[in-house]
Amino acid sequence: MKIIVIGSVASGTSVAAKARRNTEEAEIVVYDQGKDISYSVCGIPYQIGGEVEELSALTPRNAAWFKKRYNVSVFTEHKVTKIDHATKQLEVTNLVSGETKVDHYDVLVFATGASPFTPPPFNKRKYDNVFQVRNIQDARDIGAFSTKQPKKALIIGAGFIGLEMTEQLMHKGLEVTVVQLEDQVMPPMDADMTFRIEEHMREKGVKLILSDTVKTIEGQTSVERVITTNGITIEPDIVILSAGVRPNTELAKEIGVELGDSRAIAVNKKMQTNLPDIYAVGDVAESFSVITGKPIYRPLGSTANKMGRIAGDVMTGGALEHRGVLGTGIFRIFDLHVGQTGLTEKEAKKEGYDVEILHNIKPDHAEYLGGKELIIKALADKKTGRILGAQAIGQGGVDKRIDVIATAITFKATAEDLFHLDLAYAPPFSTTKDPILYTGMALDNALKRNPLVTPAELVSLQNSGESMQIVDTRSKKDFEKAHVKGAIHIPLAELRERNEELDRTLVTITYCNKGVTGNAAQNVLINYGFEKVYNLSGGNKNYQSYLKMLNQK
After folding, report:
1. Cis peptide, bond prior to residue 247, ω within 30 of zero
2. Of 137, 103, 131, 136, whose CA–CA distance to 118 is shortest?
3. Catalytic site residue 42?
4. Superfamily the domain 2-39+51-114+246-314 falls into
5. Which residues cross the membrane (predicted)?
6. Domain 329-444 = CATH 3.50.50.60
7. How many CB atoms are located within 10 Å of the residue 385 CB?
8. Half-sphere exposure of residue 303, counting CA atoms within 13 Å on the CB side?
9. Cβ–Cβ under 8 Å, residues 296 and 348
């Protein structure tokens, strides 16, 4: 059996390695039009920024290493230009010599990855100071240009790469402007969470321009000036395009490989396409949601490695299957770590879930040992109690909490299950009631007895003229500093004596600074016979942040 893999980054090399581990009988050949193999795309921003000293650290393996280790023939700078699946032959062009040869396969794997999208008007002409961050050659090109010591950078797009490059270029001393088409950074997340990222970026000196795009470019060989749709003029020395990626499906489409709804290659759980003996893995292939079972496209290196291993196993007689993804991701932006897993609020509602939403604001570990504020936004299905997703922002401990929740979602855990987890505790690492445990407890309470209302829901109720009473349970000092519009001030310590001042038949909303005291007040009123009592999710702090977001959008 002869296996040919087109593409040699995360997924392609994983296919070859796993297939060889399973059998010594197969001939395995990998073609890639690039110069480098098995490199870390995700590490490129950090090498550009200087956190990774040598570019070679991102390319630990080469073709000779693969040949010696796995007896796999890897041909770099070789482009597959044509495939005839009826005869199982393909044409390959040596990009250095220009020579073309014909090769044959028994099994073919598309590991062709994805290419960065070039938005207009940058797609009209090539400029010597415009770059993308997708492969090792891009890193070399940006490194070479950096010798000109650019002072001002323009970044188009505020996804993972855009925000990581923002951080790294700021660390190098450049002035950075970010232009984002949508009205928020990190569009896959919920706006009430990403607003915190936007505030942090502006505090660090980033000029952030949302709901805008570049309309015109001035300059012939270099971008000297751009003017946005909203009339803002920017004069950058270097431009980084990070406007997303598109799967490289052209070769596959030519031979009849079917694409999915996401426009990536449709595959089954064994990474097989609609054509016999043809597989697709990595950023060119579609995945599916662990929660909904529906196809989704989440191009990440971690998923690509998994897909490659599964395909390499299946084609050599193994039984591995892809189990889907949650879209789990994490990044750092200056002092903040930002992570997410599962469905966001907007995604869950689009899928038809009736969700309970908690904003849990707690220190990531004991405050007396330097614990810093961590906010977790978590969702549970009201019908089943199952955890559906979470987003977290903080200066530490985000990865741990997101990974725990991702594991819990994978095994269909409920909010109550989260509370009962036996997690590691010591003051340098956690609080006695870990933020995960508190998230599970508070969500479970909300599902059974103590419902929550989000700031967005409260503002909607206020705007609709809904008859309700809002009770601020904090100190007089905190109340006078900032409070919810229309709130009545009754400190928790006085609530048992003064609850007669309230109408037990009205919808009642309690709140404090972050949620805990508001929940205590909610219990008091429920026990006194109040009919509908809600606690404000995330308290006044979360509410004021939401109002600020509305005023700035």
Report:
1. no
2. 131
3. yes
4. FAD/NAD(P)-binding domain (3.50.50.60)
5. none
6. yes
7. 17
8. 26
9. no
Is the model's pTM score more than 0.90? yes
Helix locations, 212-321, DSSP H: 250-254, 301-314
DSSP string, 458-515: HHHHHHHT--EEEEE-S-HHHHHH---TT-EE--HHHHHHHGGGS-TTSEEEEE-SSS
Domain extents for the chain?
2-39+51-114+246-314, 122-243, 329-444, 452-552
Residue tagged 């490129």 (tokens)? 44
Tokens representing residue 56 in the block: 């070679």
Closest Cα partner for 266 from 246, 287, 289? 287
DSSP 3-state assignment of 397? Answer: coil
Q: How confident is the model at residue 552 (pLDDT cuts 50, 70, 90)?
A: confident
In sequence order, which residues have a C-beta less than 8 Å from that of residue 67 and are 6 or more positions away?
A: 73, 74
* Contacts with 250 (C-beta within 8 Å, 6 or more apart), sequence order: none
Residue 124, judged by CB atoms within 10 A of its CB (0-12, 13-18, 19+), counts as exposed
In CATH, what class is 122-243? alpha beta
Q: Could you read off the pLDDT of 151-171 as tens digits, one per residue?
A: 999 999 999 999 999 999 999
Exactly one of 42, 95, 275, 459 is catalytic; name it.
42
Q: Give me 305's structure tokens.
A: 């490695």
pLDDT, one tens digit per residue, over 344-377 is: 999 999 999 999 999 999 999 999 999 999 999 9
Residue with tokens 């706006």: 191
Cβ pair 522, 535 in contact under 8 A: yes
Tokens found for residue 116: 């960065």
Angle of the 539-552 helix axis to the 455-464 helix axis, nearest 10: 70
Please give the biggest Cα pair distance in the chain.
Answer: 90
Q: Which amino acid is at 12?
A: G
